[in-house]
């Protein structure tokens, strides 16, 4: 049986039948009948992501341990995304593009802004290091000389004009956590597997060291690594009619379409000096009114971002839940909570609120949030497949300890001396 697009709509296929490949627009979305935590895969089932990759699963092991990358055919296209305006990252960006084209023979796609930067900034010399022994055909004398001869082979992707859902096999991210968030925002439906190299400030979500990239990418191309499905939120901002109170008023979507959110949706008071009053509904049932600076609705991935600053729990990425965290609540008892991912949330300003607010989605699409606005938040049907270095839980704990310094202290407690 084959499961398409990360969903539960299945059909019988024989082992000899080639898998169907198409654009992300054609993939069947997952079923909403079961929460993500209960979408267990049977043996010999597969889930497709992007154009050419699939996830293999086995219900004899927990869900977070059973995800393994496999290719329906050898990957041929890679999108390389880099941290913008960083000469050190640009240098490594060129190195990876050269390796992918000359050593592995892949078609490399880059964004238009990155392509322009490639042509205007010199990256200097390629460092001599034993970590780059796999380069073979690449000269270590001058990186730019090698790159100029390949510049015509790089394909340029123009955001908003070119659709890459049916072209990209996997994504290589060079930067920090913000670069990974940006890569997620580029794919509002099915997302190809992402491998993230830590070249930013924190790097909680980017487990790979760039020095190891030839070895790591060879493993990716062979399909020998596992990956974590990071749940995203599907958020839709609505505006009521002119009056905002009449049921006859037509609602319309403010942002172009539903936005896929990897970290969090934030509603906050912005420039207004008073407190916000935000009503929260769960499955259309009124839950509470937040009175404070605002509220955060976060994913487990976002639990280590803004939500962590509010005192919310840090949650492993495989846990199917939302985190509702108030921002500076005017209450001594308002604690952050987690709710199941199979429910839907709705937020709007209370009718007695004295001022407007601002809303943002992963720090993007920032705009006013008034009494005429309602934001619907539900589990996205298109999670983000992030390739693991050591394993889902191992990478998560390593990130907590090495980047956030979880449970770090200068010295361990001394043992008691034994009595003689």
Mean pLDDT score: 78
Radius of gyration over C-alpha positions, nearest whole angstrom: 23 Å
- Please state the overall shape, judged from the principal axes of the Cα atoms: globular
Largest sheet: 12 strands, antiparallel
Q: What would you call the structural class?
A: alpha+beta
> Regions with pLDDT < 50 over 5+ consecutive residues?
1-46, 121-141, 242-248
Helix count, DSSP H or I runs of 4 or more residues:
7
Report how far apart the termini are. 69 Å
Give the percentage of residues in beta strands. 25-35%
Jot down its keywords.
single chain; globular; alpha+beta; 12-stranded antiparallel beta sheet
Report on this model:
- The protein is 16% helix and 29% strand.
- The protein is an alpha+beta fold and 420 residues long.
- The chain is globular and about 65 Å long.
- Mean pLDDT is 78; it is low at 1-46, 121-141 and 242-248.
- The protein contains seven helices and 24 strands.
Briefly say what this structure is.
This protein has 420 residues and is of the alpha+beta class. Helices cover 16% and strands 29% of the residues.
Topology record:
Blueprint lengths: L1 E2 L6 E2 L34 E4 L3 E4 L11 E4 L5 E6 L4 H17 L3 E5 H9 L22 H6 L6 E3 L12 E6 L1 H10 L7 E5 L14 H10 L4 E4 L2 E7 L12 E2 L5 E3 L2 E5 L7 E7 L2 E14 L7 H4 L11 E9 L7 E4 L4 E5 L7 E5 L2 E6 L3 E7 L4 E4 L4 H11 L18
Parallel strand pairs: 6-7, 6-9, 7-8, 9-10
Antiparallel strand pairs: 1-2, 3-4, 4-5, 11-24, 12-13, 12-14, 12-23, 15-17, 15-21, 16-17, 16-20, 17-18, 18-19, 20-23, 21-22
